[in-house]
Design brief:
The structure is a single chain. The chain is of the alpha+beta class and 114 residues long. The protein has one domain: 2-Layer Sandwich (Alpha-Beta Plaits), CATH 3.30.70. It contains 3 helices and 4 strands; from the N terminus they run βαββαβα. It has a 4-stranded antiparallel beta sheet with strand order 2-3-1-4. The longest helix is centred in the first third of the chain and has 18 residues.
Length: 114
């Protein structure tokens, strides 16, 4: 049964948040190999809400250790999670391919260091 974890993450600064989103966008499958879907929304200048979908609770539980390791670095100030089984799902199939294409080609959020 698909399983979802929703994380509300607070960062020490906007730059820390954008740096983390760039890292996740570029390295999601190597950081979280069992993740099936991830989407993150900017909730404020220094916080985001991330939705992660896994095949089942066991896969989501294995990801917690990886998430904790990822968040042990600098820049994070707090994390709060909700989780549970998926009980409803909708995707507009004819539009999902375009959405995936657009999101996979998001530009970096921070300018490259010179």
């Amino acid at each position: 049964m698909p399983y979802v974890r929703i994380n509300m993450v607070d960062f020490k600064s906007n730059e820390d948040m954008l740096k983390d989103m760039d890292t996740l966008q570029s390295n999601m499958k190597s950081l979280f190999p069992e993740i099936r879907l991830f989407i993150s929304m900017e909730a404020s200048e220094t916080s985001n809400v991330g939705i992660a979908v896994y095949d089942d609770k066991e896969a989501a539980d294995r990801a917690v250790e990886k998430r904790n390791k990822h968040m042990a670095g600098e820049g994070f100030s707090d994390n709060f999670s909700h989780e549970g089984k998926v009980i409803a799902f909708y995707a507009e199939n004819e539009k999902i391919e375009n959405l995936v294409r657009v999101c996979h080609h998001l530009p970096p959020l921070l300018p490259s260091a010179k």
